[in-house]
Amino acid sequence: MKIFEKADDVPWFVAGLAFECVECGRCCAGPEEGYVWATEDELDEIATYLKMTPKVFRKKYVRRVGRGFSLIEKKSKDCIFLENGRCSIYSVRPTQCRTWPFWHSNLKEPDDWAMAGMRCLGINRGPLHPAVDILKKADATRE
To answer: Nearest-5° angle of CA 107, CA 69, CA 35?
Structure first.
């Protein structure tokens, strides 16, 4: 089975990358402002998890950005659901959170991966993820 059509398609991480989430919450914390993108289905799932109606949940925790939806942040720029260094909605977190650190911005060059590793304690530890799986996660993510 041919995975990459031509040599130019082969990513620098063709041998895979090691990552294991240690649930430290550093990927969810400021100081930078950002967006935690979520689909309508993901927002509904979080609302259900929190035993809230979708309408009440969205009014309290979601902001509209262009055509998309993002979870709001605390004044510290931490995700609103980061509590005591842990994600309080971990089992229903949005795709953007589930696919971290396999985002295109972290995969452009080895230096980008290394920079992400300075913030994320799970990078370069744990199981090796195949390049094909990494690219699927990156493609599923809106940054």
So the answer is: 40
Helix (H, G, I), strand (E, B) or coil at 52: coil
Q: Which candidate, 31, 26, 23, 16, places its Cα nearest to that of 120?
A: 26
CA distance 107 to 96: 15
Residue type, 89: I
Q: What is the model's pTM?
A: 0.86
Query: Where in the sequence is the domain holding 74, given as residue range(s)?
Result: 13-22+32-140
CB 107 within 8 A of CB 9: no
Cα gap 59→94, rounded to integer Å: 18
As beta bridge partners, residue 86 has 83
Whose structure tokens read 């080895």?
A: 110
Is residue 4, in this structure, part of any structural domain at all?
no
- Are residues 70 and 43 in contact, defined by beta-carbon separation less than 8 angstroms? no
In a domain, 2, yes or no: no
Q: pLDDT tens-digit profile of 19-77?
A: 999 988 888 987 776 899 999 999 999 999 999 999 999 999 999 999 999 999 999 99
